[in-house]
Amino acid sequence: MNLIEEGINRKLIRFEDDEKYIYYLNEKMRRNYANSEEKVQAEAYLKLVLIYNYSPNKIRQFVTVTMGSNVKEADIIVFNDEDCKSPHIVVECKREEVSELEFEQAINQGFAYAYALAGTIKYVWITSRLKDVYFQVDKEKHIKKSVPDIPQYGVDKLAKYKYAKDGGFFNKQKLFELEIVTEDELTRRFKQAHQALWGGGELNPSEAFDELDKG
């Protein structure tokens, strides 16, 4: 599925000024599509609607979150209700070229939003498109648990895996088919791994070897 084309066909988004800007029709919001992080966020939003089957009415982008005396902006929050009072999933998006340190900071930011928002149990999804991590957060028990995916709409128990040969279902959860990775995609992933290993050039060889040894 081409998410952008389907998003346009479903009237979820449109492009303006020779695709310099993306317009989210449900929220009546125009954003700079030349921003590499915006491309990742647009794809995450479309996945939530077109693949994970959440109603656009239960999704809010660029949400103001108050944390103590600080006010931050969460990229995307999926709610359990159309009044958007009961947060369900927090999504933080980073550009594809993000460093490993920045990605770890985004994970911590996602946790901070999960703790600041109402409700006890929430899911956190951090994505750069090339890398995705998912967590379940229980505020009362102070538990942050890695999970294989975020729940699709109507799923209350996640499978222990996200992909399966030929797809299929686990209870109500649709499993993803194994994917063939293109050469360009593989190259981008190798570059990201290289950046993570060498810390963007900041690590010396012995420190880089220690990072490799952790794997």
Describe this structure in words.
- The protein has 215 residues and is of the alpha+beta class.
- It has a domain at 35-147: tt1808, chain A (Alpha-Beta Complex).
- Helix content is 30%, strand content 30%.
- The protein has a six-stranded mixed sheet, sandwiched between helices. It has a three-stranded antiparallel sheet with strand order 1-2-3. A two-stranded parallel sheet has the order 10-13.
- Helix 1 packs across helix 2.
- The longest helix is centred in the middle third of the chain and has 17 residues, at 100-116.
- The two termini are 33 Å apart.
- The relative contact order is 0.09.
- The mean pLDDT is 88.
Structure characteristics:
tt1808, chain A, globular, 215 residues, 5 helices, 6-stranded mixed sheet, 3-stranded antiparallel sheet, alpha+beta
CATH fold-level assignment of the domain at 35-147: tt1808, chain A
| CATH class group of the domain at 35-147 | Alpha Beta
Secondary-structure element string: HEEEHEEEHEEEEEEEHH
Architecture (CATH level 2) name of the domain at 35-147: Alpha-Beta Complex
What is the structural class? alpha+beta
Task: Count every helix, treating DSSP H or I runs of 4 or more residues as helices.
Answer: 5
Percent of sequence in beta strands = 25-35%
Global mean pLDDT: 88
Question: What is the radius of gyration?
Answer: 18 Å
Measured as a percent range, the helix fraction is: 25-40%
Overall strand count: 13
Low-confidence stretches: none
Report the end-to-end length measured between terminal Cα atoms: 33 Å
Shape: globular
What's the arrangement of strands in the largest beta sheet?
4-5-6-7-8-9
- Major sheet details: 6 strands, mixed
